[in-house]
Amino acid sequence: MSEPKRAIRPSDEVILKATNLKKYYPIRRGVTRRIVGHVKAVDTVSFELRKGETLGVVGESGCGKSTLGRLLVQLEAPTEGTVEMAGRIVKAGEEMRRLRRDVQIVFQDPYTSLNPRMTVGDIVAEPLLIHRKELDLKGRERDRVKELLDQVGLNPEHINRYPHQFSGGQRQRIGIARGIALNPKVLVCDEPVSALDVSVQAQVVNLLERLQRELGLAYVFIAHDLAVVRHISHRVAVMYLGEFVETGDKDQIYNHPMHPYTQALMSAAPVPDPVLQARRQRIVLTGDVPSPANPPTGCRFHTRCWKAESICSTDHPQLIMRGEGEAAHPTACHFAEEMVEVVTG
Description:
globular; single chain; six-stranded mixed beta sheet; Rossmann fold
């Protein structure tokens, strides 16, 4: 994908802030269902999101990306930590209702996230009806639904059709229309293109970029595809076993990866240039991903890291600034400064 031409740049206004977010799922056993441990899906994650900004979150399956997205929209209650919207901590009651308007989510699978018994018009209109008092549409819900369908590139005349009558890409557009119905400030995109064909992926990504320019949206974009994340993101966070291990501007992450896990991810991404691809050194990680129910002590990546030393198994590295000059960015690695640059094309 080519570098997008953006009409707006992220402002300095922080609209969403997560502080020390944790989500532990209890492990229960026996007849009494006693708690014998916890699955640490998300463990002490903090970040800020600015108006008009896209934060890409990458990492392998099971690292906690989707759980983080659900915590941000309060589909899951955090075990610890807070989510702030425009400087106000989100709590139950009116604060939660306001969050529902300001932060929406687009799910990975557009087929399972849309009710097959509801028409497209009813699906997109549902948030409008729930928040009718705040929006003051004065009975114009149906007209607003048609506007939304047209805004995402669908025929407004198909308002009475059902989800099974649309293709996968069209269903994802329906999900996006539902997501922007309340004019949110933040849209959490949980792998919105991973279930789509490559050509359709490009169309959906271009749609998200256009909506960001037109509406000033901020995105938390969760994905596996490093090329898509590089194309759409302003900043990138690399996640491993429930933690952010490296964050920074996309150019810092892709051109100067400092954490060994990030380097392994970058080395696995294909490059369209065969000459450059032949020159690249592939980093093959050994061992299996540890269980989030029993993560390693110290650095959670040390069991698979070729740079690990004794300190890595005992001292947990902090996500602090490492490196020099323009390449310096937060990395949770004791030996980040010693990492060599990985060519990513």
